[in-house]
Amino acid sequence: MMRTRPLKVALLGCGVVGSEVARIMTTHADDLAARIGAPVELAGVAVRRPDKVRGGVPAELITTDATALVKRGDIDVVVEVIGGIEPARTLITTAFEHGASVVSANKALLAQDGASLYAAAEQHGQDLYYEAAVAGAIPLIRPLRESLAGDKINRVMGIVNGTTNFILDKMDTSGAGYSEALDEATALGYAEADPTADVEAFDAAAKAAILAGIAFHTRVRLDDVYREGMTEVTAADFASAKEMGCTIKLLAICERAADGGSVTARVHPAMIPLSHPLASVREAYNAVFVEAEAAGQLMFYGPGAGGSPTASAVLGDVVAVCRNRLNEATGPGESAYTQLPVSSMGEVVTRYHISLDVADKPGVLAQVATVFAEHGVSIDTVRQQGKDGEASLVVVTHRAPDAALSGTVEALRKLDTVRGVASIMRVEGE
Amino acid sequence: MMRTRPLKVALLGCGVVGSEVARIMTTHADDLAARIGAPVELAGVAVRRPDKVRGGVPAELITTDATALVKRGDIDVVVEVIGGIEPARTLITTAFEHGASVVSANKALLAQDGASLYAAAEQHGQDLYYEAAVAGAIPLIRPLRESLAGDKINRVMGIVNGTTNFILDKMDTSGAGYSEALDEATALGYAEADPTADVEAFDAAAKAAILAGIAFHTRVRLDDVYREGMTEVTAADFASAKEMGCTIKLLAICERAADGGSVTARVHPAMIPLSHPLASVREAYNAVFVEAEAAGQLMFYGPGAGGSPTASAVLGDVVAVCRNRLNEATGPGESAYTQLPVSSMGEVVTRYHISLDVADKPGVLAQVATVFAEHGVSIDTVRQQGKDGEASLVVVTHRAPDAALSGTVEALRKLDTVRGVASIMRVEGE
């Protein structure tokens, strides 16, 4: 059964992930060959700095000319682990044009240009696989695209960024503030020197766009995703969360509207009950909770980043793409047939936890409650605490549209008796 | 792009799962067509009792002649949700012979005859898919076979039977004994009138055989799986578990030996630490923990049974098989190239929690400790409790081969000072 001409893989990038892909391809060559039905070999590795020695990659495979590598014509699969928009995008489309399929781990590029990359792949009869782009080693793209292809997904809610989960977990367990926890994450290598992409949730937003598109069979652009980072989360917020039996996570949430006619995608910190499976996701782990009409509630959990886990996801895709080539077939392409519109954050319906600093005098609660009522936001619980002439009010609402809550908060700020809005946090998972 | 001749599905069995498959195929026909790239229609439904009305299935599709249905020659996919060995086995092979691929939820048959069914599928160029056979709606077979195809799986440990997890969870949370918890499970419909297949772990053992075969790319027969039911688990065991910071779960465990040269598969009740992700799997939910060389620790969680969840898994497979047919290709077949031997339970290395009823006199602990030492089983902790002339000894061991532990227990029973071995339970997940 086994053919002898090997399938050829070109590797673009040989950093933490790429070098691990190369290592496993070498050390596990026999297993990969048996699973594919043909041997697979590393045919070239494009890097920026060829002088930087990479463990295990033969020097003769290394090149600085990535374009020439993807144009060679004898490459079956291009593995793109460079990241960023360019030159990755051009290299991927060039690969398709020259008869290669592509396995990518590039969430930023897929979130921004997924549709045009899919179109290029289809035009040239090639595969585009990207399991590693969301939640690292956790099988998620394939289960959503294939295992749940006979079901209707209504909600995807997940922790898809390990850095921020590490920081929030530290804040939760140690009582540390944000900067202290960030410093620890940086020292341990969980956060980059410039943590913006993680802590401002750009990374999670890209993943939310990809997940929403797949889950709802529609196109969701990065700009469609509401994004709120987690730099403003305080130790006081965690204390409030604990009083409610909750913790705080940075969640990516993709939802189908109740009427089914639109979808939303958003990333923001939120309180979730300790009893929710996502609440116990610790350190830099990722987990994604999926609600489907027939399947019910599913959860996928595992390491969301790191060289080896990401290489595992990449190589699973390499095996799939190689099998497709031997079958002279391609796997499922883009599925965006529903063309559902993406609604804005104002239309998202959820619950809110709001802390107000108020004057400690009679009638304040009545005033505040009136403002909520006028905006159609129903109050679930109120807790009032007085201290030294000042007081705080903690309001937890029933489900209400985000726009109604924003209107409420704007009006609250104008009240003489409200000295400040200490925090607003959404409450999910109930 | 869309072809107009529909793909035809024959449904064998129209009980809890089958009727849900039929319902979703009708109500979500447009979605299924869009995802497959061609319409798909229900071409016939074989049942034993045609007089029993099935919601939504047109009377003209119903037949009692399953054999004639699978022999029709125009069927693309046969969905087998009858269960049991015969007539399911003959119908599946007949389907292959007559040009149909098969989607099955039949764990007993796949555990017993998976290899010959795969061979028949391959001989006739057909697909055999069975995501629904293990852990219901949880995408597990596809992630193990495809997403992790570039990785090396070392361990699969899961809760794969919802009935027994429901019973154990009740015992844990309410302090109930086994029979009381079983009665509640029966009353709520979680346990069948004859619960043997579940509580004696035949069901879980079949799933362990399937999972071990896929995970290690070898053949594991049902007879290779060590099986111990959970009817002997007592409220006292749960009390002991709590003292250790553990709970008790019925676990299916598939492991690669440390030297990589063999594998084991077993199902038995075990203590696991409350901090382990499997400990918090409540009620009738299932979850499977996977340890792979590169990916690290992954967990898959969701409903393990029920009509709708199982139908979701079946339909995911139907979509995949239909796509394959449009591609004139087949998906991955059996992967058993490693041909690793399956070791017996005696070679499994794990930890043990042993409760002994002993005479309350000096020297007993020394005697008991000597027996452990003579059998090469190292003791981690001992707790001694005296009450009214009797005493109990609770011993927790370090990791030791199961055969050594069995020898230890046999020798302990012969000691005059040991009045009885109250319980032996393995300790996993540490």
Automatic annotation (TrEMBL), chains A, B:
Residues 353-426 form the ACT domain. SUPFAM superfamilies: ACT-like, Glyceraldehyde-3-phosphate dehydrogenase-like, C-terminal domain, NAD(P)-binding Rossmann-fold domains. It catalyses: L-homoserine + NAD(+) = L-aspartate 4-semialdehyde + NADH + H(+); L-homoserine + NADP(+) = L-aspartate 4-semialdehyde + NADPH + H(+). It holds the Pfam family NAD_binding_3. Keywords: Amino-acid biosynthesis, Methionine biosynthesis, Oxidoreductase, Sodium, Threonine biosynthesis. InterPro entries: ACT-like_dom_sf, ACT_dom, Asp/hSer_DH_NAD-bd, HDH, HDH_cat, NAD(P)-bd_dom_sf. Its EC number is 1.1.1.3. It comes from the Bacteria. PROSITE patterns: ACT (PS51671). Its cofactor is a metal cation. PANTHER family: HOMOSERINE DEHYDROGENASE. Belongs to the homoserine dehydrogenase family. Catalyzes the conversion of L-aspartate-beta-semialdehyde (L-Asa) to L-homoserine (L-Hse), the third step in the biosynthesis of threonine and methionine from aspartate. This is Homoserine dehydrogenase. It comes from Streptomyces tanashiensis.
